[in-house]
Specification:
two-stranded parallel ribbon, mainly alpha, disordered N terminus, globular, about 550 residues, 5 strands
Length: about 550
């Protein structure tokens, strides 16, 4: 063989991909993509159920059976022992191929195998009896929660809630396995389901910093005699059609690609990705005010732009890193763009065109609009209605309660008392009913224990991203004022979207892209600067 021939052979070998080198890896990806397609087909049915489907008992039951059938097929395929065998074979076939001087382009194969091994082990370690019990409990517990909330009767829900925490703990304990019991708390395992790589100890430190800073600051803001007027938000009727069109104009302007999605109306706003070329968002609108509908649409468009800019491999590798990261994208656009002064210099003419009809006026200044949308409601009991200054404490309250229940430091029966006491300590608000207190959220009835902290982790990350974005795009505020969002959107895509699950945690992503892990200081500084100015406090 001549030197030239040898060089050619070497070049050809170096061009090999993991799928070309390992037949097992290629077959594994084919099977995993089939599961993805089944899950996305189910999502089509689910979106139709929530947005378009005729609402009647017979149809609801039929759709439930259709979705259950698809879910069963997807689960069978995802837990097929062949998947486990292919994971082992592929790892052996690719062993050593990622080392320097190897003849294969390892690419993302190593991370794919890590993610899929973890997912496979999590699925298969749960006995079918336990999976069935969980599904049945979700239905019965949610029903019990709805009735308890209607009747302001926590005691009628307590038994079901005990089962929810117990079953969630049983599942988490199996997923944790014997090898991690020494190093991973049960609650950290639960958190990992929603925010991988962020154990309770890490979140404790972040949330303690936020709480220590915000509790005294909120008390100071509450005592200020200077309060923004809420007049721009309500006091008249706002045409629903006009609100929809204004919201569509604004979210298309900031970057939601409607040629690869759609905007609809539903009871509760949400985002659903059927694939990166079909990402759908919904919002809701009220004739009595315009702000919630617009902010809800901007929030969901932030989620959607993340989904639209993920990779197209049809593997979990190119899905959102975590719930906290997902929330950071919606909150970046909602708060750091949609609640900024500069935003209303751009959006005000759009709102005026929408609402100045039939002799009605909408002549508020940019400063008045900015003040109204950022006003603090010091009497609000409900998390989903909270402003961005008090919202973090609503999350911390829930986080502390569920952490202590899982640790055995709080009895289920004592949750209402603990809740009411903490609301008084954190926000100086008296809770007069469990319906407006510990029964207000649906999450625990669906065994989503460990989900709440992702809301605040997302807020912290959004503030950190905004800080660095302004450093790199020094005229970011001018861009927002002019309605020029493309560079901001590209920056987010480069720092967050394109990476999918290639990093193992929110912290690891931020270290790689920004140079430091999640830092609560940016969030605290952002809130203090905004509300010190708005309420004229030092």
């Amino acid at each position: 063989m001549t030197a030239a021939t040898a060089a050619t052979a070497t070049d050809a070998a170096s061009a090999l991909t993991a799928e070309e080198l390992s037949p097992s890896y290629a077959l594994l990806l084919s099977k995993l993509r089939a599961v993805t397609h089944l899950e996305r087909a189910s999502s089509v049915l689910n979106y139709d159920r929530q947005v378009f489907m005729p609402s009647n008992d017979r149809n609801s039951a039929a759709r439930g059976k259709q979705m259950a059938t698809l879910a069963s097929i997807a689960h069978e395929r995802a837990t097929d022992p062949v998947i486990g065998e292919l994971l082992e074979k592929a790892a052996k076939e690719l062993e050593g191929s990622g080392e320097p001087g190897s003849c294969i382009d390892w690419g993302d194969a190593k991370r794919v195998l890590e993610l899929e091994r973890e997912a496979y082990d999590k699925r298969t370690c749960i006995p079918s009896e336990l999976a069935a019990r969980k599904a049945e409990l979700e239905a019965s517990a949610n029903h019990a929660w709805v009735k308890a909330r209607e009747n302001n009767d926590f005691s009628s829900f307590a038994s079901a809630l005990q089962d929810c925490f117990g079953t969630a703990a049983e599942i988490a304990n199996l997923q944790r396995g014997e090898g991690k019991k020494e190093t991973t708390s049960l609650y950290s395992q639960m958190l990992d389901e929603f925010e991988m790589g962020m154990p309770a100890e890490r979140i404790d430190a972040l949330f303690d910093e936020v709480q220590s800073a915000l509790v005294p600051f909120i008390a100071k803001v509450r005592g200020s005699p200077s309060k923004p007027s809420l007049a721009p938000l309500s006091g008249r009727t706002f045409d629903i059609k006009a609100q929809k069109e204004a919201s569509r104009t604004i979210v298309n302007g900031i970057g939601f690609d409607e040629s690869r999605g759609r905007i609809d109306v539903s009871v509760h706003p949400f985002t659903m990705s059927l694939n990166g070329a079909d990402v759908r968002i919904t919002s809701r609108f009220s004739e009595n005010e315009w702000y919630q509908g617009l902010m809800g649409t901007i929030h969901e468009s932030g989620h959607a732009m993340y989904e639209q800019n993920l990779g197209d491999s049809d593997l979990s590798l190119d899905s959102a890193l975590s719930m906290g990261v997902h929330e950071s994208q919606s909150l970046f656009w909602e708060r750091h763009v949609g609640k900024s002064k500069e935003f209303y210099k751009w959006a005000r003419p759009i709102l005026m065109e929408a609402f100045e009809k039939d002799g009605q006026q909408f002549s508020y200044s940019c400063e008045e609009l900015f003040g109204a949308v950022n006003a603090v409601d010091f009497t609000n009991l409900i998390r989903v209605n909270a402003d961005e200054l008090t919202y973090p404490l609503h999350v911390i309250l829930r986080y502390n309660i569920e952490r202590d229940v899982v640790a055995g430091d709080l009895e289920i029966a004592d949750i209402p008392t603990r809740w009411n006491n903490d609301m008084k300590i954190l926000l100086d608000i008296d809770v007069l009913s469990d319906t407006q207190g510990c029964l207000q959220d649906i999450h625990w009835s669906f065994l989503a224990i460990g989900y709440f902290p992702t809301y605040l982790l997302g807020a912290l990350m959004a503030a950190q991203l905004a800080h660095y974005c302004k450093q790199e795009l020094t005229d970011m505020e001018i861009m927002i004022e002019r309605g020029e969002f493309e560079d901001i959107r590209k920056w987010l895509s480069q720092k967050v979207h394109m990476h999918g699950k290639r990093y193992k945690s929110l912290d690891e992503l931020l270290v790689a892209q920004l140079g430091e892990p999640l830092n609560a200081g940016y969030f605290i500084d952002y809130l203090k600067e905004k509300y010190s100015d708005l309420y004229e406090v030092e």
